[in-house]
Amino acid sequence: MKILLVKLSSLGDVVHTLPVVQDILAAHPAAQIDWVVEKAFAPLLAPLRGAGLQRVIPCELRRWRQSPFSAATRSAWRAFRRELQSQHYDAVIDLQGLTKSALVAWLARLAPGGKRYAMANQTEGSGYEAPTRWVADVAIALAPHSHAVVRGRELCARALGYTPAERPGYGLNRSPAHVGWTRIAPETIAFVHGSSRPDKLWPLEHWLALGRQLNAQGYLIALPHGSDDELAISQAIAQGLNTGEEKAVVNAVVLPRLALDELTQQLAQCAGVIGVDSGLSHIAVALDLPHVQIYNFDTAWRTGPLPDSTGEEGARQLSVFAQASPSVSQVWNAWLTCQPARAHALGETT
What we know:
The protein is α/β, with parallel strands linked by helices. 36% of the residues lie in helices and 19% in strands.
């Protein structure tokens, strides 16, 4: 069985879709799976090559739309179509539900008896455009109030006729980073402070206060960044934490700007991650790291860590929500909950 998954962007959405690869392989071990994704996010799928994914087909629809009639765009579009149409698929599954993903699904070639599948309806808080339903041979109605991970898993399960496992598996490993990459101390917490949306950010003074509490417990803070603005915040946090009298003691380090696959492996070395609602925070969930995800909006039910099988108490991954933003003590106590042995030794603060 040859299957094409269409999930183009954004980073968090791609991470939420990773479990469908493991689900499909559990039900159909001989399946050959290809995935169309925006080029910027293709490195995230690299660990799945040879371990579930046969091909990752990158596209740059975001960039191509900026100059659709240029010679470079036309050439790149033709090359993309050739690669996409070099295989015939038994199932093409549009997991995005937008016009751009419907276009890709429509362009893909079907094997005899093959079908295109898509969502029949919008789910709460997610984008949806009618062409995805028009292109589909089979449109599958999903529960309107669905977590992003659950929605994708259900769509594929119903399209291909299997029952997924209770807990999602993401397929990302936590093997040691390549010898040429920056090594991270085992007692390191990554602060994922950046987001493309300013209204998702947490105040700088909160990061500094939380960092000091973690430093006092022996943790080093690692500060990733993906833009000049995020670099400036990383540098401000590092400067605020590296001000002790003992200049030889480093409390925070600004990571170099890394490719997505390299940054994923850097996070994998950390003892945990604390971050705002962003793609990197969702990668922390996929890596099964102790993690606290900070929300200024009540949307964690849709994109945050899924509830632990034993309930929220003692969970390794938690979301914290408050308006205008959660307090430092809320995030700190959530972090202690994610670290039960450490929490027992330290006690919770208020």
